[in-house]
Write a structure and sequence with these properties.
By secondary structure, the chain is mainly α. It is built from 12 helices and no strands. Helix 2 packs antiparallel against helix 3 and helix 2 packs antiparallel against helix 6. It is elongated. The two termini are about 15 Å apart.
Amino acid sequence: MSLQEHRGQDALDTIDEKILQGEDFFERHGKKLLIALGVVVILALGAFAYYKFVHEPKGIKAANQLYVAESQFIAGEDSLALKGAGAASPGFEAIAKSYSGTDAGKLAHAYSGICLYDMGKYQEALAELQKFASDDELIAPSIQRMIGDCYVQLGKYEDAVKAYESAAKLADSEAISPSCLIKAGHVYEKLGKYDKAIAAYQQVKDKYYTNTADAERVEADLIRAQAAQAK
């Protein structure tokens, strides 16, 4: 194997590490971003809870229980947040099951998925994340991006790129779309589909390059994919 081929293989191994072990920025900090988004939703729920749920005690109770579980989640007690501590303090799983149809119940599915993902239970995490439904322009694409992460961990790369591209399109924002497209590009490289990887990186560069923190990284990704395609 030539030196150039060795370097190419090393680059693909690095991509594998980033995809499968979650060592890039968004993997390391993604949970914090989702927590922040979750807090925004909880605050919003609290603000309009009286008006929205004044005639729906079930909805109020669900929001209150979710707040407790979320506090445990933020404290890093994923297992407790997920499973709860009995009837007096139910976790995300119980809240999602008991209060399906409420905003709190829907959000509990998302939190359950995040907890399960952190525990390495990717199939279960995927199932929970897919039950989450929202039109929120920040949370919905972030959850879709995490669905892509689950597919990667399960070795379902074609499904992963579809999820990442869907998330990028759904968000259409500098805050979320670049990371989704870069993730898609990494998976396309793993699949040997360098033309699609290049297209994903080029989209980041053309549409988000001037204002995104991913500018330098996507430039390196683009050069690597172009070199691999040229072989």
